[in-house]
Specification:
This protein is mostly helical. The protein has 12 helices and no strands. The chain has one domain.
């Protein structure tokens, strides 16, 4: 990995996603359709991050990990529909249920095709999607958590020598960071984007777990960053002191991510090869 690759595989999706959101400030003035800007930005950034590395995807894909991008794209397309219907736009749990169903049907990583694994994917997306953004959790908090979790998954992918997943997760993390900054600069209505990030996080987690060559105990570290999402949401909602609840919930996320990375660093043997 060198600076040129980082600029290409992470910088370009970041720039495209940011530009789309900034353009949406003028193209989508109505509050009802404001969420479309971020939804489109994140969805397109995901596709661009993949194409820059693997080219235009084929159907069926040549490698099973490519299903990750197909799943995120499908959920992004569904998320574009919700702002058009006022009742659906506010049904966060229902949106997560639908995203979980889509992910459970599409994701096809090695050793994860059994029916119970698909049910597990459904549950994971449900908890990740609702954990990122309940009614009381602000948009900037969702972006910060997505940023941190995906950055952690990117580092885990590097530790397991899965460079392409590392770049993809890194690009999505950078886009989340950009969305956070833009949201703070110019607050906009933000709904449904949490299911895209929830799906991407679950997909990256399961993809990394499936392709990691370490033992089962070492590979379990992949689930710590994702598990921090519902834990942080519980802390945010349950913490009595509203002034510090965001700090506490974000601290939970950071502790889980640092623990996962530390676990991976000490358990993974050194290697000079990156794949696939």
């Amino acid at each position: 990995m060198n600076p040129v690759e980082v600029l290409q595989f992470v910088g370009i999706p970041l720039g495209i996603g940011s530009a789309i959101v900034i353009l949406s400030w003028w193209l989508l003035p109505l509050k009802r359709f404001q969420p479309l800007g971020v939804i489109v930005a994140v969805g397109i950034s995901s596709v661009v991050a993949f194409i820059l590395q693997e080219g235009v995807p084929t159907l069926p894909p040549t490698q099973r990990w490519h299903w990750l991008v197909f799943t995120v794209t499908a959920v992004s397309l569904l998320a574009c529909i919700y702002p058009c219907f006022k009742k659906w736009d506010n049904l966060i749990v229902l949106q997560a249920l639908i995203a979980g169903l889509v992910a459970g049907l599409i994701l096809q990583f090695p050793s994860q095709q059994e029916w119970y694994m698909r049910c597990l994917v459904f549950v994971m997306v449900l908890f990740a999607g609702t954990g990122l953004r309940r009614v009381t959790i602000p948009a900037w908090h969702m972006y910060l958590v997505s940023w941190a979790v995906l950055a952690g998954l990117s580092i885990l992918a590097l530790q397991s020598s899965f460079a392409k997943l590392a770049f993809y997760a890194g690009a999505m993390s950078a886009v989340a960071a950009s969305m956070c900054v833009l949201q703070l600069l110019r607050p906009r209505e933000t709904k449904s984007v949490q299911i895209i990030y929830g799906t991407a996080i679950v997909g990256c987690t399961l993809c990394g777990f499936a392709y990691d060559q370490g033992d089962t105990a070492q590979r379990s570290a992949w689930f710590l960053p994702m598990a921090s999402i519902p834990l942080s949401a519980i802390c945010y909602v349950a913490f009595a002191n509203k002034k510090y609840r965001a700090v506490v919930s974000l601290a939970v996320v950071n502790v889980c991510i640092v623990a996962a990375i530390t676990w991976s660093i000490f358990a993974t043997p050194a290697t000079d090869e990156m794949w696939p």
